Amino acid sequence: MEEKYSVKKLSKQAGVSIRTLHHYDDIGLLKPAVRTEAGYRMYGDKEMLKLQQILFFKELEFPLTEIQKILNSGEFETLEALAHHKKVLKAKQKRISTLISTIDQTLEKLKKGENMKIDELYKGFSRQEAEGLRQEALKKWGEKVTHSEEHLTSLGKEKVNRLQTEFKALWMKLSQMTKMDPTSEPVQHEIEYHYKMVQQFWGPRNPVTREAYIGLGEMYVHDDRYTSVEGRNNPEMGAFLNRAVKYFAEHSL
Amino acid sequence: MEEKYSVKKLSKQAGVSIRTLHHYDDIGLLKPAVRTEAGYRMYGDKEMLKLQQILFFKELEFPLTEIQKILNSGEFETLEALAHHKKVLKAKQKRISTLISTIDQTLEKLKKGENMKIDELYKGFSRQEAEGLRQEALKKWGEKVTHSEEHLTSLGKEKVNRLQTEFKALWMKLSQMTKMDPTSEPVQHEIEYHYKMVQQFWGPRNPVTREAYIGLGEMYVHDDRYTSVEGRNNPEMGAFLNRAVKYFAEHSL
DNA sequence: CTTGACTCTCACCTTACGTCATAGCTTAAC
DNA sequence: GTTAAGCTATGACGTAAGGTGAGAGTCAAG
Predict the structure, then answer these.
(1) Where do runs of H (alpha helix) occur along chain A?
(2) Does the interface predicted TM-score (ipTM) exceed 0.85?
(3) Which of residues 44-83 of B touch strand C (CB under 7 A)?
């Protein structure tokens, strides 16, 4: 059999780069049938065939090392690999769906709240994350909302920390507004955001009613942890928050 | 403000590795607020906040360089970037769907045809690809099936070449079966596969009828191009094919 | 014999870090 | 004061799948 393909010919026919052929030779995935005395790589039909197989699996996003194994193994292993790969792809697809919905949420927030700054972008958590976070949050803050707890799965602490950071950011912002009127629009806007965060923490099965939210506001007044930001204490913060929350609850809930 | 986070603290709180913080420092994505005299990195709340933003975009699979730009730009650019990224993700998702269906087709084939060897795996082309290939194929083989040609989009030649290679592989296989009974199961199985390939080439709007397929078989007998494989001629191939195709057409179509 | 097309082998660049190696700093215990 | 534990720093190499040259040898044609 004549080995009829030079690197250029094979690369053109198969639609890959010459460098790719070199690479495949280097890693032993596709060796030329022979080498001319000058060292030129020459491929035959068998290699063209193998290249097609390689490209098939490459299109499916198999890594080259796996393609190696697959081509060197039997049909059973191939079946297994394909079935497994399908699962991987499905997982990937699911993840992308989540990402897209996260983007949608974020876009919505950005468009709606005109005065929302980029610093708050990371607030666009997906629903699933918030779901899982609730459990941790409930544990952490010792709320006794015991019903519908078991079926929630727990997430890593870094996610909890994220939420903590969000709250901290909001607090910092609010602490700079204590000289303003608690019923003014800017303040109320932040409070609304706070309300939504709390609602996310509690989840759809634990609706934050008007009364619950007012109660939360009262809690803040009496807990010094919530009225100090960045080490500096801010005694008027408690009363300020209480009034702002109360006003919001009575007018918007 | 006290810069309270060492690399370890920050990494733990945010759920990233220390190396990651080093890296972000190296590329200027997240610089520490200050360095101690010993050179230790110290971060403050502002940096923690920025890290959260970074992680948000990272979760969405933005590359770090883009995250750089986004964090340094205004809200409008952020909105744009998010909207564009959504498109990218959607395209990815679509592609994965195609890949999954390709795997399904391949799995089906492998399970159904027990004597199909791995060498034929790459035959699991997606329907879209086959669609596009038709046009090229029709042009190439000069068939005058002119209706419904315009609305087919053309694909690269490497795809055509793939199909050619497939045909060649099938031919090689069949050429080794010429001593067998053309009506026997193994031969008929290959013929069935051949028929399906032809059908794919012609497409759903150009059904390969019994008569058409028999006619094709006759063509093979009278065209030497089809009866030589790998340089060596195989005169009995024509007659063999003709009988095999005819038998298949009359019994299975 | 030279030009142009083709080929070869290094070898560095890319992403987003992981994984050592080696060395300096800090702090609590002795 | 010293020492050991624990923390930190800066290199520097490795990863996947090639892209992009650089410098040099090879081949067929004029």
Answers:
(1) 7-14, 18-26, 45-59, 64-71, 75-112, 127-141, 157-175, 185-202, 210-222, 236-252
(2) no
(3) 58, 63-65
